[in-house]
Amino acid sequence: MIDLTRYDPVWAAAEPYMRARKNDVHVPLSFDWCVTLLEHYPKADVDICLLAILLHDIGWHSIDHGEIVSQGFRSENYLQSDVRCLHEAEGVRMGTEILQDLGWSATTIDAVCEIIDGHDTRPDPHHLNDRIVRDADKLWRFEVTGMGIASEWFGKNPHEYADRLESAILPKLETDYAKTLAADALVSSRRRLKLHVL
Ligand SMILES: [Fe+2]
Ligand SMILES: [Fe+2]
Asked: Is 96 inside any structural domain?
């Protein structure tokens, strides 16, 4: 059983940066998916993965919301857009400050920042910790809540977005367990949102 209370001071320190781009919904949900993946993959490092998922998107706070949507979600090649790179760099800068202030070790901070830096733009993940954080970052979108929020970001309706999740996102998940979890969540979300009709 992972002691999740040890991360409460990090949540508190990151709170001012969680209000951009619905991060205050995305990040807690993805954090929970990360816990589920960590329980399945005990060789991954719990602190590094959970600190990385908690802090990975705080850099969006530094970027104008209109630009986040227009460049970061609805442009061609949005995953390589300038705002994507900027939110990663800002996440490293702000995450380092938060973790240093709270007394986390330099080794842990380096490992966390290595994942945050490039979590969207790096073509291939480096190792198991990186792969787990990437999957946790995407799994929330397969839930009803994530589907509702992310479909809006991409300018699609839930039916279109569910189809995109199935054809483009699910096959690119890194771990087999995440693929199983995503497929199950997709079935449930399609049923609950009546996507056979809507
Ligand atoms: Fe991100
Ligand atoms: Fe994210």
From this structure: yes
Ligand nearest to the CA of 83: 1
Rounded Cα distance, 180 and 175, in Å: 9
Q: Which ligand is nearest to the CA of 137?
A: 2
How far, in Å, is the centroid of ligand 2 from the Cα of 72? Answer: 12
Q: How far is the CA of 71 from the centre of ligand 2 (A)?
A: 15
Please name the helix (run of DSSP H) or strand (run of DSSP E) that holds residue 173, with its range, or none: none
Q: What is the CATH number of the domain that holds 44?
A: 1.10.3210.10
Looking at residue 2, its amino acid is I
Residue 116 in any domain: the answer is yes
What's the rounded mean pLDDT across residues 28-33? Answer: 98
CA pair distance 103, 10, nearest whole angstrom: 11
Residue 123 has pLDDT above 90, yes or no: no
Banded model confidence at residue 94, pLDDT cuts 50, 70, 90 = very high
pLDDT band at 6 (very low <50, low <70, confident <90, very high): very high
Task: Please give the mean pLDDT across all residues of the chain.
Answer: 94
Domain count, the chain: 1
Q: Which residue range is the domain that position 138 belongs to?
A: 4-192
